[in-house]
Amino acid sequence: MMKGQHDSITVKRAFGPVVEGEAVISEEGFSPRYDLDRWTGIITKPGHKLEGTNIKDKICFFPTAKGGIAAGWAFYDIKNKGIAPRAFIFGVTNPVMVQGAIFANITITEGWSQHPAQIIHTGDWVRVDPGRKIIEVLRRSTES
What are phi and psi of 73, to 5 degrees? Predict the structure, then answer.
């Protein structure tokens, strides 16, 4: 990224450690229970726009969270198995997902100043800083 460029979004709420990783942008919501193979970290729900994508160690951007009570323990399950993403970035989430992410020590945010797809592309390297409530593009993907 060139100096002087300001490729970042702010979030309304955030929790967890500062993390960096490869961005995965989705136009579809996410359920760790129904969309994800919890043994491999691959989105396997037929027809999901990210079907076949592995979320392990990624910074995952989803417009909404899907799921109820079971979604919370699913985060701990995938973290314990070593296949969790580094962060979940949601437009809108729910208390169960937040509690699950906190319990599993996975960085999570909610609400954004602009839709991430406007400035971040899948494959870009980003930093999530929950304390500052900001997500910054550090390096653009060569495929963007």
Answer: -70, -25
The pair of three-digit structure tokens given for residue 124, joined into one six-digit string: 């870009």
Cα radius of gyration rounded to whole Å, the chain: 14
On whether residue 77 sits in a domain, the answer given is yes
What's the CATH number where 27 sits? 3.50.30.10
Chunked mean pLDDT (size 10), the chain, 144 residues: 65 97 96 91 95 97 86 89 97 92 96 93 97 96 70
- Cα–Cα distance, 79 to 4 (Å, whole number): 36
Number of domains in the chain: 1
Domain enclosing residue 47, as ranges? 8-139
pLDDT given for residue 73 in this prediction: 85
